[in-house]
Amino acid sequence: MLRLLLDTNIIIDLSQQRQPFCTEAVALVRQISNGNNYGFVAATTITNMFYILRKFIGRSEALLQIKNLLGSKNIDLLAVDKQTLIDALEYNLTDFEDSVQLSVADFNRIDYIVTRNLRDFRESFVPAISPTEALQKLSQSPPPTLTH
User: Tell me, what's the pLDDT at 139?
Assistant: First the structure.
């Protein structure tokens, strides 16, 4: 069982069907939903998503995309609280948003941060992997066990 935190860029690829990246993002979410694995986003991803999307598709469509993400059975939301932010201030990542995601990943015992920006997580102690690597790891993950 793998616990994956999906970086904002993966969520934007998925919601906006950005080519060529959305193919892997869609496959990633399918693999998560078909297996014994868990996909997560940090709560801050939602606000970042809105900020980015409203510029390109407008407020109403951005809110619809967020509603769709929040309604997903495949991806759960992880809280960001005061301690998460305090811890994030101590991390040595270039981007504070990435430090917050790292803090969320650490607190929630995430196995991997899935991102297309591996360079941004170079100093991360939670391993960052590409969508391609995540798909490989998910395909190696054992199937769910059935209980009677």
Answer: 87
